[in-house]
Each structure stands twice: as structure tokens, then as C-alpha cells.
Amino acid sequence: MPQLGETYYTQSGHRTPARPPLVLIHGAGGTTLHWPTALRRLPGETVYAVDLPGHGKSGGVGRQSIGDYAGVVIEWLDRKLIERAILVGHSMGGAIAQALALTAPDRVAGLALVGTATRLRVNEQILEGARSEKTFAETVALIIKWSFSPSTPLATSRAIHQRMLQVRPPVLHGDYLACNEFEVTDAISAVLVPTLVIYGTADKMVPERYSRLLAEQIAGATLIPVPEAGHMVMLEQPQVVTAAVANYVCRYWGETTP
User: Fold this and answer.
1) How far apart are CA 115 and CA 225, in angstroms?
2) In terms of residue numbers, what domain contains 198?
3) Which residues are paired to 195 by β-bridges?
4) pTM of the model
5) What pLDDT digit, counting tens, does each position of 188-205 carry?
6) Per-residue pLDDT reduced to its tens digit, 106-126
7) Are 248 and 112 in contact (CB under 8 A)?
8) What is the CA radius of gyration of the chain?
9) Hey, what long-range contacts does 239-245 have (CB within 8 A, 24 or more apart)?
10) Is residue 109 part of a domain?
11) In-domain check, residue 258
12) Mean pLDDT, the chain, as a whole number?
């Protein structure tokens, strides 16, 4: 797979000037593999999935603010010569996408926001527990417990659990510091691009009311609730989330030719 500087990414499909590519941005402690294969390989679309610095196969160190992570994404877009993209962000990745839509609107063609909100306050037990190697493993176990609905297959949650344990504690702690400081509630109505908001109705990390508020504050936003899914809705219900993103892209940018 290609690698540029700090940022590892995967790519599927072929770029066409008429249609903006999709860029998938994972959440706190995540990697490209937090996105289902069906979405990473969406037929008829050019899809990039990035590992943020310090995550997955990317080098470098993690950041401690959403603004800094947004800067990383802009640098990556510049390196790839991508003028405008549809940003698909989960949780912290959704915060990064919102920040970019507000600070660099000329680079954002659309937003698909998954399990995220205009503010991402972090439970103190997670924020403090991620700080120390002594409490890191039990904190990751708690994150996984709160991130998946009880109906999720054990193999799915176990795989994410093992991947998150491979993240260095300072990186995960920095991610949650970034989330905890994120707040764009008063500004988000300035977003004018086509926006899709997807959430799991059983999400304990970002409760339903916050996703609904996010959609209400962006003019014309489409809201998709996924029943009985938790925070990792895209892995719990991959077909539903992939279909929602595909329909959103077709609605605003026309039918695709796989």
C-alpha cells in the first residue's frame, strides 16, 4: 500500500474529475480498519482511508487537538493533489471533518458524519485511564464495552479491542484530550455542504440527542438512525452504513458506474 510521509492510506477506485473522492477519517484510537471493507471499496467511487499520525501503519506522533489533526488531513490532501473531497468521519474523525468544513470550506465537497457531534465530552474515567500504562488495558476494555451494542458479534468487538491495545497510551490519551476540547456548536450552522449524519440508537459514547442536534443545526442535513447499533455503528451494521453513504453520494453527485 502507498505511504506518504507520516500518513498511511489505502485507495480503491479511480479518480474522475467530475466526482469528488471520499476520504474516510477514523476515530480516537482507530485505524483504516475501523471502516468496513464494503465502504472502503465502495463500487464506482474513489475512496481513501487514512491512518492518522501515530495510528495503525502511520508513523509520527498523535496530536492533542482537533485543529492539529485537521491540519494533518489538509497536508495529506495537498500531497495527493485532491482539491475537494467528501469527508466521512467517525467520532473524532467526524470532529475533524466538521473542523475542516468550517476552517477550509473550499476543500470540502460534502460531509458524512458517523457517531459524532458538535461537542465530544469524554468520560473522566476514560480520559484519566488512558493516560497511564498501568490503567491502559482496563481503560481500553471499558471503551470497547461502551462502544458496541450487546448484539454485536464477539469476534467483531474482539478484533477492535486487540487493535486498540496496540495504540500507544500517549496517542490514545491525546485523542481523547482532543475530543474533550472540541466544541463547534455555535458555529456549525455555517456549514453549507451536503451533509449526512448517521448514528446508532444504542450509542453510549455519543448519545442519540447529540447526533440529532448536529443534524438539526446543518441546513438540509439527512439523519439516519440505525436501530440497536452502538458507537461503532459502521462495523456493527456495515451494510446499512455503506448503503446510506452510497445513497447520499448518488443523491448529490449522480449515479455511479461501477
Assistant:
1) 10
2) 3-253
3) 111
4) 0.95
5) 999 999 999 999 999 999
6) 999 999 999 999 999 999 999
7) yes
8) 17
9) 239/38, 241/36, 241/39, 241/114, 241/198, 242/36, 242/38, 242/39, 242/42, 244/196, 244/198, 245/22, 245/39, 245/42, 245/88, 245/112, 245/196, 245/198
10) yes
11) no
12) 94
For the chain, the domain total comes to 1
The three cell numbers locating residue 167: 495504540
Provide the CATH number for the domain around residue 237: 3.40.50.1820
Distance CA 131, CA 133 (A): 7
**Residue 197 covered by a domain:** yes
C-alpha cell belonging to residue 133 = 500504562
Scanning the structure block, which residue is given the C-alpha cell 444504542?
202
Rounded distance between C-alpha atoms, residue 249 and residue 257, angstroms: 13
**What's the length of the chain?**
258
* Pairwise CA distance, residues 82 & 27, whole Å: 22
User: Which amino acid does the sequence have at 82?
Assistant: I
b/e per residue 45-71 (b: at least 16 CB within 10 A) = bbbbbbbbbbbbebeeebbbebbebbb
